[in-house]
Every structure is written in structure tokens, then in C-alpha cells.
Q: What sequence folds into this?
């Protein structure tokens, strides 16, 4: 068994365990929406989980009444990316899920205007009903296709989080060079784009996705997520040195200044990857052919 086969076997074993755990939880809500299944469960400790298929990956995990609780490791690493922008005044999140990321940002950046876009109105309703997602004058949910929303954006954002997933992957039209160029136009010169993707072991398009980011942006780094299959892509519309020590120091200061319940610098120290891959790996994904690895 080679390394890739071993990792795949380990992943499927983990997925089977997760499916068993899901089966033991109480199902609070289940609906077949226009875009797929929506399943909300609650475990014995009160944690609520959103999935988009039975036994599928956890899209969001929320501890009701505690917006600081971040069960999924990738969310903490994604937040570490805020070290690469000045105090964000406007934030965009593509992909609501249960609203975990949005509610955390709203708590720790109370002066920021946060727009969250999700294509599925039923996901937005589930987030409101089961996960404590609440809107106000600074936190707004929009039911729309994330790409169309970005392409029509008039005012740029300081931070853009790309966290839209279907049951198994990022929707193809949110991976292409045309889309990422639109994202670059929608971010301020001093801003940051933070993308969540699956790594190589579960994602045959990983190298192509990261290569496409490198084609669209002036500087790109990747951070591996501990105990997870996720990778966080940090993309800048400007040239800026992205070394491990410097980024970790910035992340540590940012998490301390905004009272994060974790040390973001430690996450960068652990997972920082010097390069997103060589130019020879993968190919540039386009609207004409977004799926072929």
C-alpha cells in the first residue's frame, strides 16, 4: 500500500466512524433542498452539527450560546489569515453553513460590516433556527450565488472568506481563474482572501486549485490544518513576503489583540507551507473546463 492509498484508507475509516457517531445523535431537522440534503443533529453534550448528506463531512458544529466555540480546526486557521490585513471594516463570507465563522467574527470585530452569502435559502433558515445565527445592522445574510454576488460587488472588502462547499467539494464555478480574478477585484489592495479547500488525499483538483490561486493573486501561501483534511489558502492582491516566522508573529499579535480563545501564531507555526506548489503541478482551472484534474 503506497502513501496515498494509506491516507485514503485512513480517511474512509475516519468517515465511517463519523457516520456512526452521526447515527447515534438526535436528528433535529432533515430536508431535501434544491441544492442537496440538509441534516441537523445534536449530540449528548448539546453540540449541533450541520451536514449536507447522511454520514457526510461536518459543515458546521455549533455550541448554542457560545459564539467562541470553534469545533472544526479549519475555522481557527482561517481566522489566522486576518493577520495579513489591517483592521477589517468590510468582510465577506461565501458559504454560511451554520454561521459559526460569521458569529465569531461579529463578536471579535464588532465594528466590521459582515456580509454572508449562501446559495441555499434553506441553509440560511436552518442557521437561524438551529445554530443561533442572528443578523443585525452589521451582520447580513444574502441568499445568492456567491460568484454572482462577488461579480456585482461595488464596494471592495478587506477580507473575503471562500468557504462554500457542497456535500463533497467546492462548487466547480468557485474554483476557476475567472472567478478568482473577480474575487481579486472585490478585495481592497491591503486586503486578504482566505480559501478553504480539501488537501490532495481527498481532492484530485488540489494542485490545480492552488495553481489557479497563484495565477490570480500576487502572493499565495498555504496552511495545513492539524487533525483535518483541510488546507487554508491565503491569497494577497499585492506582493508581500510570506515567511513562517513573520506570519506567525503577526497572527499571534492579531489573536491576542482581538481576544481570540486560541493562539493563531501556533497554528501558523504548525501548518505553514513555504509554497502552494510548483508551477508545474496541476493546471489553471477555467470556466470552460473546471473539473478535469
A:
Amino acid at each position: 500500500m503506497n502513501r496515498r492509498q494509506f491516507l485514503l484508507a485512513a480517511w474512509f475509516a475516519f468517515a465511517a466512524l463519523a457516520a456512526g457517531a452521526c447515527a447515534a445523535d438526535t436528528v433535529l431537522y432533515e430536508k431535501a433542498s434544491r441544492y442537496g440534503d440538509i441534516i441537523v443533529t445534536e449530540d449528548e453534550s448539546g453540540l449541533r452539527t450541520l451536514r449536507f448528506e447522511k454520514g457526510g463531512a461536518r459543515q458546521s458544529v455549533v455550541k448554542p450560546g457560545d459564539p467562541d466555540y470553534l469545533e472544526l480546526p479549519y475555522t481557527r486557521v482561517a481566522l489566522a489569515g486576518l493577520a495579513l490585513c489591517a483592521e477589517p471594516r468590510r468582510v465577506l463570507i461565501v458559504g454560511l453553513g451554520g454561521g459559526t465563522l460569521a458569529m465569531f467574527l461579529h463578536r471579535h470585530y464588532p465594528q466590521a460590516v459582515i456580509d454572508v452569502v449562501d446559495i441555499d435559502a434553506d441553509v440560511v433558515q436552518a442557521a437561524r433556527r438551529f445554530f443561533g445565527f442572528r443578523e443585525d445592522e452589521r451582520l447580513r445574510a444574502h441568499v445568492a450565488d456567491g460568484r454572482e454576488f462577488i461579480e456585482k460587488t461595488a464596494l471592495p472588502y478587506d477580507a473575503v472568506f471562500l468557504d462554500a462547499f457542497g456535500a463533497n467539494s467546492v462548487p466547480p464555478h468557485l474554483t476557476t481563474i475567472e472567478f478568482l480574478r473577480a474575487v481579486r477585484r472585490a478585495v481592497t489592495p491591503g486586503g486578504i482572501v482566505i480559501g478553504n479547500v480539501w488537501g490532495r488525499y481527498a481532492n484530485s483538483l488540489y494542485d490545480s486549485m492552488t495553481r489557479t490561486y497563484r495565477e490570480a493573486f500576487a502572493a499565495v501561501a498555504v496552511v495545513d490544518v492539524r487533525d483535518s483534511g483541510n488546507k487554508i489558502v491565503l491569497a494577497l492582491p499585492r506582493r508581500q513576503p510570506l515567511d513562517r516566522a513573520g506570519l506567525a508573529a503577526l497572527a499571534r499579535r492579531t489573536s491576542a489583540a482581538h481576544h481570540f480563545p486560541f493562539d493563531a501564531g501556533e497554528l501558523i507555526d504548525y501548518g505553514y507551507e513555504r509554497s502552494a506548489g510548483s508551477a508545474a503541478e496541476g493546471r489553471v482551472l477555467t470556466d470552460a473546463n473546471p473539473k478535469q484534474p
Notes: The mean pLDDT is 90. The chain has two domains: 3-62, 73-273.
